[in-house]
Design goal:
81% of the residues lie in helices and 0% in strands. By secondary structure, it is an all-alpha fold. It is elongated. 32% of the residues are buried. The model has no long low-confidence stretch (mean pLDDT 96).
């Protein structure tokens, strides 16, 4: 926690490189402490290093697939990078994890219509959309 505070102080004073250094060192000591990861990604995003943030987030999402904050940060960096399909796909996961199924489905529909992304990304969106629609249908039958 001390390192996290030190990094936030450095970042607030404009020393982004110093904040990154403190956080990287702290992550070596506590690699599973998610607030350090959140802070590190935020420093990368604040310094417009969105590609680096996305690389970092890709590993975190694999390790913590039910963490909506990670998907929210991912959506922010995808948006800043101009990757609309991936932005909407990440937002869909945020909404799904919050229990807002209609909004998640809507985001996936927007991802389909985004006009960017490759065949594999579009296929993943379509598969997830199909799964969420099936889930919505099941919920409707239970009511």
């Amino acid at each position: 926690m001390v390192e996290l505070l030190a990094a936030r102080i450095r970042q607030a004073s404009g020393d982004t490189a110093g904040a990154q250094e403190v956080l990287r060192a702290a992550l070596l000591q506590a690699p599973n402490y998610r607030p350090l990861h959140y802070a590190y990604v935020e420093v990368l995003q604040d310094s417009r290093q969105h590609q680096a943030a996305l690389v970092w987030l890709a590993e975190l999402v694999k390790s913590y697939p039910r963490d909506e904050h990670l998907y929210s940060m991912q959506a922010k960096s995808f948006d800043a990078s101009g990757k609309r399909l991936l932005h909407h796909q990440a937002l869909a996961e945020v909404y799904f994890l919050r229990g807002t199924l209609p909004a998640a489905i809507e985001q996936l529909q927007l991802a389909q219509k985004s006009g960017d992304g490759d065949f594999y990304q579009l296929s993943a969106v379509e598969a997830r959309l199909k799964a969420l629609r099936a889930l919505r249908s099941e919920e409707g039958k239970r009511r």
